[in-house]
Structure formats: structure tokens, C-alpha cells
Amino acid sequence: MSDALAVAAVTETLRAVLQEAVHRTVPDARVTVRHPGRMDDDVADEGDGDGRAPTLNLFLYRTAIDAAWRNTDPLGTHPGETHHPALPLVLHYLFTGYAPRDQDSTLPERLLGAAMSALHDRPELPAAALKAAADFSDLHLQPEPVKVTPAVLPADEMWRLWAALGHGYRLSVPYEARVVLIDSSVPGRTPLPVLRRGAAGSGPEAAPTAAEPWPVLHAVLPAIAPPGADVVLSGSGFGAGVGAGVGAASVRLTHPLLGGPVVLPARSDGAAAVRVTLDEELGAGHWSVVVVLTAPDGSERTTAPRTLQVAPRITSALPLTVTRTAKAAKDAKGAVVLSLECAPAVHPGQRAELLVADLPVLAEPFARATRKLRFRLAAGGLPGRYPLRLRVDGVDSPLAAPDAGRFDADTAVVIT
Fold it and tell me: Fewer CB atoms < 10 Å away: N or C end of the chain?
């Protein structure tokens, strides 16, 4: 997601991207973001001394709400949690070319052609360009790319737009930038997890009875595991690779941000299961896992992927103890800064949140992989003892030991 400065970030990035494009076509051209009603005077006044200032102007004339994103659940929301949805904006721009009166009359067409060609070849604003041109915003961290595409604006609406701008019609091209997701400042609520359901806490189980010619991965247990833990992958058709002396089995894991594949050797765990020990440095988040059976001749058979959630761990001494500053104690607008260490390292681009009881707090920005995160708890943080969880890319650190039946009292923060 991004902050309220995202709208300005899109405009600044567009200006930077198009400045490079029009410079290749018209070397002395510049790109501005001004009201079209003042452009004729500005082009003449800010020339290079002889009245020459070919200009491509970008004007944000309208913002709208993206209807599809407006009806989409907030990203990263787990069942039972409540989060205020992001504000999904569509930005409507008007591109207009200008040239002094004594210049070649085709300069505006050259400028518009260069801009349209550049956006046709690269309709998405890359994260690197967003960060370089607008480092005052975190729009470059938004998971959904910002796409800039031509808009459909009927001729009569174009005429009315120019009339509303108080200027005669000029050759222009409308574009729209979609979608800009602005995070809500309303804090969400993340209730504590359910420890057990029903008398036995288990549901129905089913398994195929017929032999399958190809290995099939049915389940990954536990579905959420920390680095270093043992994970059992159950399925069918594993006998050809494990325990039969015919080839070997391995497990491959891939991550959408951290890459891969990470290849881990597998051990037999019965006729229809393999066991693997997760690497200690395996990053937290959602990994895609497959079982690979390798025959002696080198050929491979691979199962369909399943999801394995690798949980982060809080490695700081628990419970955390934080003392409010005098300002925070007296002023409800003060803040308490929480600093904690975790494992494995959290990488740039990953979303890290600290869940203090049912309040999610986003981590302060970090530029490189780190095991130490800082969180600013707004409104001073009321004194008390609160359960603590670290969430990385939607996966929470454990709050209770397996089958403990209760929360760990030490996994908490004490605010005094």
C-alpha cells in the first residue's frame, strides 16, 4: 500500500519518465505540471533567452474511485479480522504540447508523439522509477503496479473541459493512471487466534484408494512452521523415490519476493509421506512447496505445488518492557517506540507488522534485510500488558506452543 503522498508521487514520476522520452525527440524540451490556462505565457517567459521553450504539460484534472478495488477485501486480511479498506484512486491526466508562436507548428505533435510512444512501450511505472523520482512517498512498495494508459474522452467532453479551464482548445491527449492504493489511517483489529475448535479440534479426512501413476502432494503439516522445524508432506505415489531404493526425493520451495528455488533433501516418513527440515535462514512468508522424485537416470517427477507458511520468530527477550516518555504520558498524541529482534531477517518489500493485542502497527521503513525492526505505537500506548505477535507478509509468529491450550504469558509487551 501507499500513503497520502502517492498522488503527488505519480505526477512526479510521470514527469521524470516523460522528460527523458521527450528529450530524445526534442532535445531542449521540458515537462511541466501546471494549469493549462497559464501555459502560453509561461512558455514565452521561461525560454532559454530567445523565446524557445517547447513544453509538454501534464495536468491532473480529475480523480475517481476504482469500483472494482473499492469492493475488494483489504490486502493481507485474515478471516475474523477487520481492516478499513484502502482508498483506490484513478488519476486522470491531460497531456498537452506547447511551442512559442515563432517555432515550428509541429512541435506539440512531436512532444505528444514521444510521450505516447514511451507510455505505449512501458505502460507501468516501475518501482525503481517511483522511488527515484518521489522518495517522499512509499508508493514504490505498493503490491499492485500503477499502469498509465490512454483514456477515452469524447470530443464534446474535451471541449467542455477546455472551456472549464478558461482556455481555447489545444491538441491534447487524456491518460489515466490506475490504480493508486492509499492506506487508511484507521487502525484495524486483529483478534487473538482460536486455540482449538470443537471437542477434538479436527475435521473429516479423506484419502484416495486407487494407486496414482504420478506423485500427488495432499497436505503440508504443519501448514505454518518456523525455520528449523520439521515438516511432513503427505500424499501418494512417493514410494518410487523414497524407501524403495529407486532414486531420491527432495523438496523445492519458491517465494514470490525472495526467489528460489530452495532445494532441501527429504526423508521417508511412512509409505505416503516425506519429512524435511526447514533451513534456519528461510525467510518468513508464503512459500510454494513441491516434492520432486528423481530417478537414477536423472528424470524428475514433480507434484503440484502447495503452500507452506514460514513463521517469523521474536528473538528479543520477552516480555518486552517499554516506558512511555513524559510527553507520551501527558499527551495522547505522543508515541511509544518498540524495538525488537526477529529471525529470520525481513527483506525490503516485505510487509512487517507488530500485533499488539488486536492492534496492528506497521514497521518503520528499512532499506536492507534486517533482524531488528522498529514500531511506533501511536496515541502514547495505554499502560498495561498486551499479547505480542510479529506478522511478516501475512504470517504470524507463534503466540502459544503447539497443543498448549493457552497463550504464552511471556510473549507480550509491558507498557509502563
Answer: C
